[in-house]
Amino acid sequence: MASRYWMISNRKPTGSGKNRKLGKDEEGVVRYYVCPLSTTAVEIRKLSSWKELAPDAFKAELVAAAAAFPLLDDAHQEDQRHVTVFVHGYNNDWDGAASRYKSITDQLFIDNPNQAGLGECILFTWPSDGSVGGYLPDRQDARRSADDLTNVLSALYDWLVSKQGVTGAKACRAKTSIIAHSMGAYVVEQAMYDVWNRKNRPLLVSLINQMLLVAADVDNDLFSSGEMIGNTPGEGMANLAYRITALYTGLDSVLGTSAGLKHFGKRRLGRSGLDSSQKLPDNVWDIDLTSKFEPGVDYGSHHSAALDSPACMALIRELLRGIDRRILVARGVAPSNESIPVVPLASQGVAPVPGGAL
Predict the structure, then answer these.
(1) Domain ranges of the chain
(2) What value does the mean pLDDT take over residues 216-220?
(3) Which residues share a beta bridge with 175?
């Protein structure tokens, strides 16, 4: 279903000609790019493969792509196409971020003989230093980059509200979703909080349908305000998203290093899962991915294992589709979670899937 590769960046371009790329410094300007799906894994890491568009032209092309999505009735909402933003983590130079984005897009968003693509996916790439030693500077860059992502999400919010006002919710052709990896979750956390405040803390419009926090480098008590009205970043995220899923594993040694560099008394969400001592919003849950990793495969630090594992990517696809949590657990697609009661599939008229396959 995807029509092209999309990219939004506040990285400063460097070099010239075929050596031109997006560097590790912030430019102070947000740029918009597209390139064709025929672009290879090597070419996508060259800025010469991308065409820069003016903001309005980028928006017009994205709106046109979403307008081509099929219009489905409520009974088939899980098959509704997505406009998804992928925000990468720290220790990602632009080459690595572009490669990861292409992998996600090719696996989930492009039609293939076995399944329909989920829609369009956009890379938001921010100026990570691309080195483990750059962790603390990256965190500063992440906070500044959140301001640029705020403007992108704020414009998206205004567009969604205007579409609902003109056509009604039933005429919506696309869901909006976010996949945030590692410190990209921190960028999203700050941006969503700023959008929530900028729009006067709305409670009636979900900006994001599905938000996936993958190996999130944020405090695991992010959503500790629960259902209470307060003034926290987690509350902004929970109120602007229909469902938030945190994917974690205790095998993540990178987040172990993260906690050691700046431990403020809380564990990392992507390593420990949600703080079980806190009352959580009803639309927030977590999944321990440790049992999903294929045996015998070397995932290194496991920090990106969720995006490398076929089983985990299959789970991510179903999460983006909006399959109910209990159904995912009952099918064996998602590991069991004590907070999610398992309802027998037969009682719901749903046939079990042999071996937990999709």
Answers:
(1) 5-322
(2) 91
(3) 82
Which two tokens mark 14? 């460097």
Decide: residue 5, CB within 10 A, 0-12 exposed, 13-18 middle, 19+ buried: buried
CA distance 357 to 331: 8
* Structure confidence by residue, pLDDT tens digits, 2-58: 899 999 999 999 988 888 999 988 888 999 999 999 999 999 999 999 999 999 999
The identity of residue 167, as a single letter, is T
Contact 319, 212 (CB under 8 A): yes
What is the per-residue pLDDT for 110? 94
Output the DSSP codes for 217-246. Answer: -SBTTTTTTTTS----HHHHHHHHEEEEEE
210: tokens are: 């599905």
Matching residue, tokens 């990106």: 304
Q: What's the chain look like in SS3? A: CCCCEEEEEEEEEECCHHHCEEEEEEEEEEEEEEECCCCCCCHHHCHHHCEEECHHHHHHHHHHHHHCCCCCCHHHHHHCEEEEEEECCCCCCHHHHHHHHHHHHHHHCCCECCECCCEEEEEEECCCCCCHHHHHHHHHHHHHHHHHHHHHHHHHHHHHHHHHHHHCHHHCCEEEEEEEECCHHHHHHHHHHHHHHHCCCCCCCCCEEEEEEECCCCECCCCCCCCCCCCCHHHHHHHHEEEEEEEECCCCHHHHHHHHHCCCCCCEHHHHCCCCCCCCCCCEEEEECHHHCCCCCCCCCCCCHHHHCHHHHHHHHHHHHCCCHHHHHHHCCCCCECCECCCCHHHHCCCCCHHHCC
pTM, to two decimals: 0.90
Check pLDDT > 90 for residue 90: no
